[in-house]
Sequence to fold (321 residues):
Amino acid sequence: MSKPVRQNPKNEQQGAETNHKGRKKPADDGSDESEDQFYIALSHDIRRHIIKIIGRSSKSSFTEFKQSLKVSTGTLYHHLEVLKECVYQKSDKKYYLTKLGEHAYHILEHNVESIEASKEKKVPETENKPSFLKNLFKIWPRIYISITQKEGRTAAVLLIALLVVGGLLCAVFDVETTLIFFNWLKPEEVIPLEEKIWMFFRYILSMGGFIAICEIICRIVLRKKDNLVPFILSFFIILLPTIFYLVVHSFLFVIAYEVVSENVDRIIMVIFQIWTVWNLTYTISILKFVPVERGFIASFISYYIGFMVLIITLFETGNII
Fold:
């Protein structure tokens, strides 16, 4: 431990420095806690790789870690949390080494492997076994994320097309929309044209309102405002289950109008809403750089707000759920 610490003048000249959780860069005071963190950091292969990746290029990003290490988002966040005394994040979203981290990198580069792995038990490896939510990532294609980030025009056209198709289905088949909730009117008389036009625009406004709520929840609850435009454009796939629901509803409208009850229609709607919530969870986790569990919390809150808006609307109109 007596080897000199290599200094990085760039780190000393740049502004307010924070670790990956947004806190100030930890002080390397040589305390017992810092020493413990030093040993813990070097006692796991993934953390050693993170330190090497940063050390060899002076900085790195979350995406580069994911591409190099091939681990889940939750696992990577866990190891970055363990490395909080060795790694910090600046306002440019890049990760840098603290003095303690530089010392760890210096040792790793000189092939010092005698690390006290037993101290690892102070920070349990809660992410070793992938959770059910993380396993679901494996069945969901990631191509649409690259579309929203690299082909914005394509995603925008698809989102507009989705809104137009959804609005037309609502207008033709007598569906009122409140955010991502739908109400089959089943009127006794033919609905006037002006009400049909309102149903069309109500779907578009509802989807726009839901998108706004999701972004607000991410900013307030998760304190994340990354990738605003890609996040909005990604709703062309997040809201796709609402189109599938409307297609199924349309089929029931034409084939079994008198047989299918509104409760059956609502059960079908809830099934597709669950799909929508999962799509939203996945997208928040990827584009807002948060663990899957936090993405699900934000998605559920957005869904719950939509449900409460629906309840208020039904009470105001005198309808019964």
